[in-house]
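Retry 2 of 3 after timeout on previous attempt. Resubmitting structure tokens to design endpoint.
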């Protein structure tokens, strides 16, 4: 392990330990007769109740190998506070790298308070349940800009409903999709100089599973029974209807080998018949005991896989044609061989190597949580928090004040050329919540900062959309700014991380890195103990000597700190704690 990796490891280890065995953070505690000061380090004080809470947390509630008495624990706590106090005195908490890292950690921690965790857990469970099945569906798409005006939205909705009606009245989904769908893959495409002709799929998307499609599409697919036509639903692409044609237990990731006889679109009938007869002959040979690899080498026309005994790269359901997926579904054990399978590319015989089916909920949880929190699903939990905060902070709006922007915002904003000075005369209040007031000037600044080159839409709709986003962002920012005062546990965790980082930085400087770099001091330390503590040469036990030297340096350093900072202990109060 190189030095950089070792230091990073130690950093995370120390911070982890500070989080698990928290020493708390001393401040200017208010003393009372019922809660006297137990400890004073310089100008920092800790009351009896504060220390009792720290001690209880780390020696009673936590599962420690050897619990400490209050007297023993107080000594450890004093050493910790002395190191952190010295780090602050040296300005380590003002260094830009420290401030940046602490801010990044706070941002991560804050996210747990800015989404609805109950909704997140429900979405994780929903995703796992969906991951247990693979869905095959066909769809019809009618394109619609996500910011389209109401009249355009209505027209597209009526058109998609008409397509649904035609299918319910007896027309095939395939035929209607080829005729009206805006998904170009639904129709045949002619050959070009760079691409062969491609048959249309009639809307058939093949198999997919959770996270393969945008969330609204995925939800519609998993909620529609096999064989039925969904009601229209909207995604960022437009309006869809879909038909679920199959639902299978999840394949997960598969590794297979195949024998392939090519027969793409346009192959003449005589050749098609020859290929079909040959593939069934090969299947009979396999059932009679022929070697799969030998048949691959002699007959398979997939040159790439033929060089690997027919083995293909691993794939998931959305990466392979549906006929393949359905054939693999019937293969249970490694070595099982499929019946001949016809696809748009030709004939195949598939041999299963391995199926890595979805893991248990416990094993899948971390990966599912990451995908839920990073994807579109996270907006659901965020929106619920925003709605709650609007009530909590008693949001009052003056949406009439938005109308002034209809006269000063024009198409230049879609070219990133809108002049914010046009709003210089505006100063009415738009919204109030908590102790925050948002004015027209605030919103104008937001429009200016967020304008970019984009496709133009109706200006009034654009302003309403931007205002909603502006208001949501401001409410979340207000909540973020007040997390420490609203949630004591948030403040405590941040203090622990802050002090843990300082502990790491100053201990690394005064002990760890110093012991490794101070070759003269290390040699002197070894020479003074050679013969009675160490019998082996330094080069043979350097690691052990460095560890001992680190302990020595820390002891010397702590003596210096206790001389530098006055440490006062209320012995009477400590005695009562120990007696209890």
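Retry 2 succeeded. Sequence:
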């Amino acid at each position: 392990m190189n030095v950089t990796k070792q230091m990073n490891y130690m950093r995370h280890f120390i911070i982890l330990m500070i989080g698990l065995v928290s020493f708390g953070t001393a401040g200017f505690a208010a003393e009372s007769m019922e809660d006297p000061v137990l400890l004073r380090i310089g100008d920092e004080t800790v009351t009896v109740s504060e220390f009792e809470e720290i001690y209880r947390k780390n020696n009673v509630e936590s599962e420690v190998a050897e619990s400490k008495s209050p007297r023993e624990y107080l000594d450890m706590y004093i050493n910790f506070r002395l190191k952190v106090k010295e780090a602050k005195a040296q300005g380590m908490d003002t260094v830009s790298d420290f401030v940046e890292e602490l801010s990044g950690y706070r941002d991560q921690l804050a996210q747990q308070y800015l989404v609805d965790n109950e909704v997140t857990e429900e979405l994780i469970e929903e995703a796992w349940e969906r991951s247990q099945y693979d869905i095959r569906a066909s769809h019809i798409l009618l394109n619609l800009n996500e910011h389209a005006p109401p009249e355009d939205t209505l027209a597209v909705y009526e058109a998609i409903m008409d397509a649904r009606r035609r299918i319910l009245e007896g027309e095939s989904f395939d035929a209607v999709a080829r005729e009206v769908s805006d998904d170009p893959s639904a129709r045949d495409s002619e050959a070009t100089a760079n691409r062969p002709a491609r048959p249309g799929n009639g809307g058939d998307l093949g198999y997919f599973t959770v996270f393969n499609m945008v969330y609204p599409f995925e939800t519609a697919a998993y909620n529609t029974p096999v064989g039925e036509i969904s009601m229209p639903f909207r995604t960022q692409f437009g309006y869809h209807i879909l038909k679920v044609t199959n639902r299978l237990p999840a394949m997960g990731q598969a590794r297979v080998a195949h024998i392939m006889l090519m027969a793409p679109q346009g192959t003449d009938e005589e050749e098609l018949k020859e290929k079909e007869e040959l593939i069934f002959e090969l299947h009979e040979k396999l059932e009679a005991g022929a070697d799969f690899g030998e048949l691959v080498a002699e007959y398979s026309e997939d040159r790439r896989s033929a060089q690997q005994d027919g083995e293909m790269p691993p794939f998931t359901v959305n990466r392979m044609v549906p006929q393949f997926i359905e054939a693999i579904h019937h293969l249970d054990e490694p070595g099982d061989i499929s019946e001949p399978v016809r696809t748009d590319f030709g004939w195949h015989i598939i041999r299963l190597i391995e199926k890595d089916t979805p893991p248990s909920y416990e094993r899948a949880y971390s990966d599912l949580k990451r995908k839920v929190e990073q994807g579109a699903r996270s907006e659901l939990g965020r929106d619920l928090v925003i709605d709650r905060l609007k009530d909590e902070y008693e949001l009052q709006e003056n949406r009439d004040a938005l109308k002034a922007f209809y006269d000063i915002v024009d198409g230049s904003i879609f070219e990133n050329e809108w002049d914010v000075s046009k709003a210089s005369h505006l100063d009415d209040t738009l919204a109030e919540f908590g102790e925050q007031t948002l004015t027209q000037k605030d919103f104008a600044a937001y429009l200016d900062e967020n304008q970019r080159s984009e496709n133009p839409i109706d200006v009034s709709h654009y302003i309403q959309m931007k205002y909603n986003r502006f208001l949501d962002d401001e409410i979340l920012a207000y909540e973020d700014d007040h997390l420490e005062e609203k949630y004591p546990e948030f403040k405590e965790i941040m203090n622990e991380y802050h002090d843990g980082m300082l502990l790491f930085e100053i201990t690394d400087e005064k002990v760890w890195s110093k012991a490794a770099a101070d070759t003269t001091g290390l040699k002197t330390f070894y020479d003074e103990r050679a013969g009675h503590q160490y019998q082996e040469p330094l080069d043979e036990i350097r690691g052990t000597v460095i560890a001992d030297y680190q302990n020595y340096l820390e002891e010397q350093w702590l003596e210096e700190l206790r001389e530098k900072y006055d440490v006062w202990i209320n012995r009477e109060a400590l005695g009562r704690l120990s007696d209890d």
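Attempt log closed. The chain is about 50% helix and 15% strand.
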